[in-house]
Design goal:
This protein has about 190 residues and is α/β, with parallel strands linked by helices. It contains 6 helices and 7 strands, in the order βαβββαβαβααβα. A 7-stranded mixed beta sheet has the order 3-4-2-1-5-6-7, with helices on both faces.
Length: about 190
């Protein structure tokens, strides 16, 4: 297998003990073990307490090598009481904070530029950052769906049908090269009708 340059863009990552964080870390490390070069642009750990973990505070980004993965942690807003507009601002602040390192990776010389960009939803707003990096790098975009957060909000009445979030979710779905999910209802949603 030929080694690939892979860029991972995702809000959650280790040392978060539950949710998407351990999954993202495991995926990135498994890709490294298969001989790929992996760079992860992630948020600062905050979940499940909804507080930035001690040792990760501060306003700037930080890059380190973690188990073979180059991890850049970007600052983002973490509301004490997530919900509604605060949650959207939380997700948008990550997408915005991840732009500079993700685009920097996409615009490197050809030998270091990503050939694949992987992102995880939820954080659907972060998919835009990953899509833009993939587009600029000429890379394939892979979206791993843990759940369809916008569809869940539409189904429960938290968001209006046909509104901007619904249109954005449809736009994202139309632009990826590959989908992956381990959850059967999400798998049915990933198959084009």
């Amino acid at each position: 297998m030929t080694a690939r340059n892979i860029l991972f863009v995702g809000l959650n990552y280790a040392p978060e003990p539950v949710g998407i964080g351990p999954y993202s870390q495991g995926l990135c490390e498994a890709l490294v073990q298969r001989g790929n070069r992996v760079e992860a642009v992630v948020g600062k750990p905050y979940y499940p307490q909804w507080r930035i973990y001690p040792g990760f505070e501060g306003v700037g980004s930080a890059t380190s090598e973690e188990h073979g993965v180059t991890v850049t942690r970007v600052p983002h807003y973490v509301p004490a009481n997530p919900g509604g507009a605060k949650r959207i601002l939380h997700l948008a602040s990550f997408a915005f904070g991840a732009l500079i390192p993700a685009l920097g990776a996409a615009l490197r010389g050809k030998e270091r530029r990503p050939q694949v960009v992987i992102t995880v939803a939820p954080a659907l707003l972060g998919v835009f950052t990953a899509w833009l990096a993939a587009k600029l790098a000429g890379a394939k975009l892979w979206i791993h769906v843990q759940d369809f957060e916008v569809e869940a909000a539409l189904a429960t009445g938290l968001l209006p049908k046909g509104g901007l979030p619904a249109r954005f979710a449809s736009w994202v779905e139309a632009r990826c090269c590959a989908w992956a999910t381990a959850f059967p209802p999400s798998a049915r949603r990933c198959v084009p009708s």
